[in-house]
User: Fold these one by one.
Assistant:
Number 1:
Amino acid sequence: MSETVVIIGAGQAGCDMTAALRQQGFDGRIVMIGEEPVLPYRRPPLSKAYLSDEMTEEQLYIKPASTYEKQNVEVITGVRVERIDRAAKNVTLANGEVIDYTKLAFCTGGHARRLPLPGAEKPNVHYVRTIADIEKLKAQFLPGKRLLIIGGGYIGLEAAAVGIKKELRVTLVEAMPRLLARVTGPELSEYYYCVHSAKGVDIKLGAGVDALEGGELVERVVLADGTRLEADVIIVGIGLIPNTELAEAAALEVDNGILVDQQCRSSDPDIFAAGDCANHDHGFLLRRMRLESVPNASEGARVIAATICGKEAVHNGAPWFWSDQYDLKLQMVGINQGYEEVVIRGSMEENSFSAFYLCGGVIISADTVNRPKDFMVAKKLVAGRVKADAATLSDESVELKSLIA
Amino acid sequence: MGQVTYVSFDGEQTVVDVPNGDNLMQAAIDNGISGILGDCGGGCACATCHCIVDDAWAAKTGEPDEIELDMLDGVVDPKPNSRLSCQITMSDELEGLVIHLPESQF
Ligand SMILES: Cc1cc2nc3c(=O)[nH]c(=O)nc-3n(C[C@H](O)[C@H](O)[C@H](O)COP(=O)(O)OP(=O)(O)OC[C@H]3O[C@@H](n4cnc5c(N)ncnc54)[C@H](O)[C@@H]3O)c2cc1C
Ligand code: FES
């Protein structure tokens, strides 16, 4: 019987999987089904160059339709997969079509966590996940408007930077006592607080949102301490919920993402998952983790393709990520959870530094700002679980490279 | 539009038409060339689009900027003509360009 790989979700992971399957020599049928009406695209620019009008929609597409045709990949867009029948090994689409699979991959990503308050459905409350979200936002993203951003994570901060560039009046509220609290150390939080404040973002920390007031539009945001902030446009960036309903309905194991092993295989050996929707047994971190990044989606996709083609592959790369705000190029590698010590190399004043996170003397993670060279070395240091002491790491006369074992 | 030849690490050659203005990472993805990943989408943030420009062409493709040089410093087995393919933009001048792909991107 000939093989058919069905991919649910036409995003980063799905798209990369189609290419990787062909490159690994898979010659069966490949069908990728996506709910959004467009070809797979890159999301990172949504809160960066696309929001600031420096990129067109076509430039967001990972590749043109002709490439899928050439690689003999069937792409169905604008249709949701509604059901999976694991016994019959098929999926049912919203348009009634039924497609049989021999291998199935979940690349369903996630959706923006909604603000659980009355008024959050009004037309000037925005999320930043899809092209459609940004199209709606752009119409209101105009000079002089009062932009209020709820959430001081990457997406909120990147949107703030674009808001300043586009001459909006930007306020950002964050419920935690510091910015980027979930992902970075207090030193970086403080640094980004200073950068954004200096650019004119009015940041309020420890500021939970209690209510939204107004008429047809939200006009005021009420904070927990009773402060009322006037706003024309509101962006909510408070995290992502993995799209796992289908997997749950099909009785796959799910716990903050579809549970998969190091080959990205779920509790059903013919079903895989990668990207934002997957919670994998990470071969490098040696624990379960659900990551939200392009490199993670791409690596997972390549691992699934190799596994389906009978090759050995494990998802074990040190996780890494990047974020662009103003002219600051932030690149980070590793997960700093559980670190005991932070060492700064370089100068925050000059906007060129790296923060290394140590645990038991081992470099477990690094955040680099405008230091691509440090970043490339840090990737190797983190991947190699290299030990280093604070004095050496902070001493710029010692070449970072010399620490690579 | 001009032709660019991608030579894989094993020596396999693929010739593709690249529209002017496109970068050579994107052109590799568009044509399903393995050996170039482009994880950051051309942001000069990942260095998974490393290539080595053929000696005959090194002068025409120009010099990498500082960020690109710093990223190249950390790729596997850098060569004097190493470039990040997302930072090379196709133009009439580059018609016939030949680039070589490394054994591994990480
Ligand atoms: C604004 C923004 C900025 C970002 N910036 C960065 C960055 O700088 N660096 C970085 O590394 N990462 C960044 N990310 C994260 C990165 O984009 C994601 O981690 C990545 O897109 C995940 O890929 P994925 O394939 O898992 O999911 P997605 O790309 O979200 O694709 C999933 C697709 O599946 C579809 N789908 C879901 N359910 C179904 C169904 N039942 N039937 C059919 N289709 C379905 C969805 O509609 C969606 O199109 C950013 C994300 C956003 C939103
Ligand atoms: S695609 Fe990431 S550096 Fe070229």
Number 2:
Amino acid sequence: MQPSGYFSADYGKDMAVVRTRAQWFILIAFMLALIYFPFWAGAGGRSWEGVLSVSLAIDIGITLIAVLGLCIVSGLCGQINFGQPAFMSMGAYVSGILSTRWDLPFPLAIVSAGLLAAVFGLVFGLPALRLKGLYLVVATFAAMMIVPYVINHTKSLTGGSDGLRVPEASIAGFTFDSDIRKYFLVLFFAVLAVIVAKNISRSRVGRAFVGIRDNDIAAAATGVNIAHYKLLAFFIGCFFAGIAGSLWAHHVTFIHAEQFQIWDAIWMLGMLIIGGWGSVAGTVLGVVFLKGLGEFGTVLSPRIAEWAPSIPERVFAALTSQVAYGLAIIVFIMLAPHGLIYLWERFKVYYRLWPFSY
Amino acid sequence: MEREDSAILKMDDISLSFGGVNALVEVSVEIKRGELLAIIGPNGAGKTCLINSITGYYRPQRGQIYFEGKAITRLPTHKRAALGIARTFQQPALYPAMTALDNVLAGRHAHQKSGVLTGALYFGWARKEEIEHRRQVEEIFDFLEMQPLRKKPVIMLPHGMRKRVELGRALAQEPKLLLLDEPTSGMSTEEKEDMARFILDISEEKKTTIALIEHDMGLIMDIADRIVVFNFGRKIAEGTPDEIKHNPEVITAYLGE
Ligand SMILES: Nc1ncnc2c1ncn2[C@@H]1O[C@H](COP(=O)(O)OP(=O)(O)OP(=O)(O)O)[C@@H](O)[C@H]1O
Ligand SMILES: [Mg+2]
């Protein structure tokens, strides 16, 4: 629903994402806040209860890129991909190996990481041409098994179970060696990823994806080459994962196969569900929400324990662990299956009609 | 050869079965360029199977299908769509989460060119293309008198309107051959009249060849140029509405033995 009194002068304006002056204002203010954030939180002492740290923001940004990829392949195109962390680790290793063993500069390494993860994703996307739903979950799940196995058994290349040291990213002599610098590197890629995902979702390719998700018979009848577009979705989705993996590798500077767990695959899908399946803005909300929840649990539970020593420690252990994530996902599936973005849209409609809403 | 000129689509000796069920038995049908052909028959006669065979969703075990003189029997569905065959479904097959506008825009797929890279950049090429096709889609919304529905997700639309949006999506494909599977089923009388008017307008103004499956005999007699009748997978009669009305075999099929 549009704000009242607002009418598009032409189709171009009507189709724009940011339409009104107020929306532009909010967007610019938000971007300025993102730029200012690391300086505010960076010193550590000033960050609110230690929750809003720069390293959390970096983590959110990298995860967001991977989950946006998942939003394309699973959210838009409907092909459940249970192997996104595996494709991410693929990207991390490609980038790590290229920059340590071949001394490839970071920009080339990250693009190669994206492309190789994408090609790898195509291979695991092939079963999608025949399988649907649960069967596809199992097929993509195989990536989660195969990738660590291959990494651990190609020691000369990957360092095997010893892990691999990766240098910090550097572009033309400028090294991203502090949290603040890494933050801006990740911010750049995350903003780019949001723009790319949104643009794909609102143009021809995105409609073909959603067509396949919602009614593949009708999509074929309108001229969509189903096989081609399913593979394309895997390619794009895993490209995002590869980029995220590369950023991750150059951020933590030490990678090993066990860093990417089955849990991560579940939480990534959970972020899509919580945010709103198939919505780019929803994906952003979902990632921030679930990552934020985890951080709150970690930081706040010792404090709550101080205030209320009668609560057994087990409860906090659960709060800070996967249980909190799992509970959040279940609560959302039950109470708000369309996700945060839907709640937000409802709120906007309500607010615009106020006080005449019912 | 001269026959192929008048027929836009030719089905030659088609047989389709599912296990023991013979859905289509040695069926030969021609759809003539520019005509409005009605396909009728009792439930389970094989009408929908006929459309599904034309679009490539079903693969008949026997027979050949020619579109504009070219054999399309082995072409996948999306390629047949690109040649100019569009359809609607007995149960509206829309994309429920999308708006009516996006559903119809999705019908422009084969006419649009922008890919992943141009789409990802959006500004410039893809945007220009989107605007251009949006304009054409708006014309369809005007034509089908559904401007107020544009921004509504189709999940919120009533059945009759969904059928109209689906017709819009098929029109957006700019088909040479439009296949309509029971376009008025489940509609109120008023909605049926509107739909009949739209179908006639498409036939007369856009000169689109139309084949439609329909159970409402009154409507068929009013608008069809020609009728083919099916029963138990076989074509049992073919002719003008007047001929069909008086065909004894058709009367038995409909009234029962
Ligand atoms: N996918 C399928 N698998 C098995 N049998 C099928 C399949 N599709 C159709 N049939 C059978 O083929 C026969 C013809 O079905 P079809 O849907 O073409 O009938 P119809 O003429 O469209 O009937 P209606 O007026 O009820 O829509 C029916 O006996 C039906 O049960
Ligand atoms: Mg039918």
